[in-house]
Amino acid sequence: MKRIFEINPWNITSHNFPKEDMRLAESITSIGNDYMGMRGNFEEGYSGDSLSGTYLAGVWFPDKTRVGWWKNGYPEYFGKSLNAPSFIGIQILVDGEKVDLAKCDFSDYYQNLDMHQGLLTRSYIYHGKSNIKFTFERFLSNKIQEAALIKVKAQVLKGSAKLEFISTLDGNVVNEDSNYEEHFWKPILEDEKEKCIQLITKENPFQVPQFTVLLKQSLRVNGEKVHGEVETKAGYLAEKVTTMLDAGEKYELEKDVIVITSRDVAPDEQAERADLLMHELCEHTFSENLAEHEAIWQKRWEKSDVQIKGSDEAQQGIRFNIFQLFMTYYGQDARLNIGPKGFTGEKYGGATYWDTEAYIIPMYLAVAPKEVTHALLEYRHKQLPGAYHNAKQQGLKGALFPMVTFNGIECHNEWEITFEEIHRNADIPFAIYQYTEYTGDESYVQDEGMDVLVGTARFWADRVHFSKRKHKYMIHGVTGPNEYENNVNNNWFTNQMAAWLLSYTLERLPKAKLEALKRLAVSDEEKAHWQDIVDNMYFPEDKELGIFVQHDTFLDKDIRPVSTIPASERPINQHWSWDKILRSPFIKQADVLQGIYFLNNHFTKEQKEKNFDFYEPLTVHESSLSACIHAILAAELGKQDKAVELYQKTARLDLDNYNNDTSDGLHITSMSGSWLAIVQGFAGMRYYNDELCFKPFVPSQWQGYSFKMNYRGRLLEVNVSDEIKLRLISGPSLKVKVYDQEVLLEEGQEKCLKA
Known about the structure:
The protein is of the alpha+beta class. Helix content is 30%, strand content 26%. It is built from 19 helices and 33 strands. The strands form eight sheets. Strands 1, 9, 10, 11, 12, 14, 15, 16, 17 and 20 form a ten-stranded antiparallel β-sheet that branches. A five-stranded antiparallel β-sheet has the order 8-7-13-19-18, with no helix packed on it. It is globular and about 85 Å long.
């Protein structure tokens, strides 16, 4: 493990230039604001190895599905998030020589991502005929989401120099991850007077709207607005300002940028909107805009911060993950969701997966306003037409939510995912259950949520088949959460979640609103069939071992623990052929254990323990989604050392580059796992049947921890050390259970219990 940033509770800091790990550093210093984001690329440019990336929420391209052998039902297109026009560029020339840290002489390198205020800073001393300290500051505004603010400070330490700063807006960008450097943006205009460019995504044959983007810049020197020399070419604008500085003199250049997309503003109205926002932005100084941005971060941290005593490593990890999640999504736009890489890289196409419902929603319910989670539910409801289309493509009834999507239509081009990883069609509706149980708000499940439940229930009722030999319903030809096995029969998790979905839908139907019942028209015959499936679903099991079997033939494999794999062959997905992986007993992520985590109160402690003890030693944890589920179950079973080990992996997965794959982007949708491991794992938080419960312990390596959580209109603080303190910060009185002791909390009151 190679660590390139220092341990600090609130900062991601380095004093070493990451020449050999530039892509990794760029990933870790990514920033965003729910509307747009970017990797930690250098403003002045860098000719060494680098992955340039700027991304705009909801802006994507449908590319023709490319497969060796077309199969009926394949999605017509594969969606991908586009590398957007770059707007951070400020090339620097010193006495005519370009500043490029891949080539020039420099010292005193420093880089810092301040998680408390959401500010990225970088500095170094350039050595040439003169010595000049350059400092860069950058943030994407939480106040005006279309705004990016960049400041460059130059201070001559020795000698004198002519400095040229060339601020650019550049639409001539490519996606590195696909299509062999293909250009997806076509220029529309370059306006020298207004200092803006406008581009449109290229045409596609799939009736997916093209996206038009306008970028506008304005420069300030030492706080005063300036107009430099402007030059343009297709899809590109450059504005140059020049100064002469002697030793001791300073110079500050601020670049204000506004980015407008056709998702919100029609192309012919974008210039006017950009003018208004730029005027609003430029009414305040860089410091004033930063203060407003930081104030919003403060409000978020007040409700979401997890404080850990005794381990700065663990503290930095949990804050980094919360920080990156909130920069990616904070519920401002119900048309958006959370991609596995967020705004930090191209991998996974920037699309929505089942990760959101399975991993993000349980955390957001507690750390963000209820409306944030409601927006995520709305996102899926609005895409139900696409889900019906997906099922029809497979020749099935009902609604099939996509594995990968931007608009509800499946856009993943691997058969084992598109056709077979259908457990998502229960995992996604499971969020409705979680939302209802946690908030106590039944209005969604009684109306729009019922559309989702019935649509997916109709899919499952058609997708199962009845085995006359075993007199059981079965589901063949699937991929479970363990993607290291494809086309298996009766994956225990898939069967379990399908049965749960049908059962929950039947339970909720009598409580649905009359309007929902009328539009859905579920017949008595349908309900009877659904109940029959629930009562007679086949679940593979081995009574001798006392385990649920991952799928029909899993135990016929060469069962052996992960410890038998030579270290030189790990991770196996980077060393083994796919054939060898598929034949192996090794599990990518929680599969049976994922089901035990979801439906935790359905199983006995003995069942949980036997399944954990059997499956965890077989698990390579090569999915970022794996460690947190195992950490939570390990904590519940009293396996504290294992729980802490797996917490460390999920909390610092990217900071410590555990799986050697962070260079292409952060694992955003798994970042909630560190919060879940602490709150659901170490603190033992559960919420069943209108009852909030805790069974906390403190890891032996820590001195204590505390967190806050929203719960049904209340803000609660939980502090765990050698005693347990519960404080109801705001809201009506609340009963909670700690271990099996009932505690009544009143607003403003703190109760203290022995651990």
